[in-house]
Amino acid sequence: ETQRGAIVSRSGNGRVPNLAGLAGALLGAQSLWSIDGFLLQVAELRHHGVGIWTDAHQVRFFGLDPAAVLTAVLEGTVDAGFVPAGAVEAMVASGEVGASDLHVVVGQQILNRIDSPFAYSTRLAAPGWTLSALSQVSKEIGDQVALAL
């Protein structure tokens, strides 16, 4: 399973009509080290010429719960938030937000995607789970485990 990231704004927020609109924006994210809650989005913005540390007004981190980021977006505490793809759909399914309350901002080149049941903003994807082996595990055993998975 691969994971992607979503860049989310409040519906009707003219401040963030597209990815370029994130320049000068106040952004919210889960954690500096969250792959699908920060790093994938940073790479996507870089691809669109927006530097997260040079062009954004500020980045605020809300912890590992994507609902905290989305709540900040809904309350207007931040202009846009970075969450894993599927976080918006999970909040809609739970009844916490309406389907039209939030908008996933996407770049032109990924508008016609069909490879995921969730809306996402990032071209890059990351593995859902990583697996590593200690140095004392032989390459042969490591390869066998990887193939079995």
Could you explain the architecture of this structure?
This protein has helices at residues 35-47, 66-75, 87-93, 139-148; strands at residues 2-3, 5-10, 26-29, 58-61, 80-84, 102-105, 126-127. It has 149 residues and is of the alpha/beta class. Strand 3, helix 1 (35-47) and strand 4 (58-61) form a beta-alpha-beta unit. The radius of gyration is 17 Å and the shape is globular. The model has no long low-confidence stretch (mean pLDDT 89).
Widest sheet: strand ordering: 4-3-5-2-6
Portion in beta strands: 15-25%
Provide a count of the helices. 4
Mean pLDDT: 89
| Biggest pleated sheet | 5 strands, mixed
Would you spell out the secondary-structure blueprint of this structure?
Elements: E1 2-3, E2 5-10, E3 26-29, H1 35-47, E4 58-61, H2 66-75, E5 80-84, H3 87-93, E6 102-105, E7 126-127, H4 139-148
Parallel strand pairs: 3-4, 3-5
Antiparallel strand pairs: 1-7, 2-5, 2-6
Protein name: Solute-binding protein family 3/N-terminal domain-containing protein
Organism: Tetraselmis chuii
Pfam family, one: Phosphonate-bd
